[in-house]
C-alpha cells in the first residue's frame, strides 16, 4: 500500500509541476516587441542605370544570342527587349516615363545610339508622353525587321555589324 500511495503522490506532484509552467507565455517565434532601431530592409533592385553597360539584356550581339548559335532569333530579341523594359520600368506601372528613360540613357545609347527623346518620338504611337509595353515591343519588332535584312527571321553577325538604318516612327 505504501508503494501505491507513493506512486499516487508522485503522479499528483508531476501533474502539479507540469501545470505550473502552463501559465507562462510560450516562446514560439521571434521577438516582436518594439525596438529602438529601424528594421533592416533589403536594398531595392538596382535601377537600369546601376547595371554596367554590357550587362543589360540588349547590350550586344553575344548577349542577345542566348543559345549561342551565331544568330539572334526574333524570340531572343523580343525576350531581351521585354527584359530591358522591365528593368527600365522602375515604378513597375507597366509604362516608361520620360524620367525613367532618362535614367536609362546609358543603356538606351547601346541601342543604335538612342536618346530618351528620340526613342519617345519614334515609339510613342499615341503621343501620351509614356511608352507602354505594347509600344516598346512594336519599336523592338520594327528594329528587328530593319536589322534582319534578308527577312529570314534571324539577325546574323554580318547583319548586326552592318550599319543600322534609322528606325522610322512606329506605325508609319
From TrEMBL:
Q: Does the keyword Glycoprotein apply?
A: no
Instruction: Show the SUPFAM superfamilies listed in the entry.
Output: EF-hand
* Pfam families, per database record: EF-hand_5
Protein keywords? Signal
Q: Give the source's domain of life in one word.
A: Bacteria
- The signal peptide stretch is 1-20
- Identify the residues that the record assigns to the EF-hand domain, covering every copy: 76-111
Q: Under the GO molecular function aspect, what terms does this record hold?
A: calcium ion binding
What PANTHER family does this protein map onto? Answer: TROPONIN (PTHR23064)
**Name of the protein in question:** EF-hand domain-containing protein
Q: What is the source species? A: Novosphingobium olei
Amino acid at each position: 500500500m505504501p508503494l501505491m500511495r507513493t506512486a499516487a503522490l508522485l503522479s499528483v506532484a508531476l501533474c502539479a509541476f507540469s501545470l505550473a509552467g502552463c501559465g507562462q507565455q510560450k516562446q514560439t517565434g521571434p521577438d516582436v516587441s518594439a525596438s529602438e532601431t529601424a528594421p533592416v530592409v533589403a536594398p531595392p533592385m538596382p535601377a537600369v542605370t546601376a547595371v554596367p553597360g554590357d550587362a543589360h539584356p540588349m547590350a550586344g550581339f553575344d548577349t542577345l544570342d542566348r543559345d549561342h548559335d551565331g544568330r539572334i532569333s526574333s524570340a531572343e530579341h523580343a525576350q531581351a527587349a521585354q527584359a530591358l523594359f522591365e528593368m527600365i520600368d522602375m515604378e513597375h506601372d507597366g509604362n516608361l516615363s520620360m524620367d525613367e528613360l532618362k535614367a536609362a540613357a546609358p543603356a538606351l545609347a547601346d541601342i543604335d545610339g538612342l536618346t530618351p527623346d528620340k526613342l519617345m518620338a519614334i515609339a510613342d504611337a499615341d503621343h501620351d508622353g509614356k511608352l507602354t509595353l505594347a509600344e516598346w515591343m512594336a519599336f523592338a519588332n520594327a528594329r528587328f525587321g530593319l536589322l534582319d535584312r534578308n527577312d529570314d527571321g534571324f539577325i546574323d553577325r554580318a547583319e548586326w555589324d552592318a550599319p543600322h538604318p534609322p528606325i522610322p516612327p512606329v506605325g508609319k
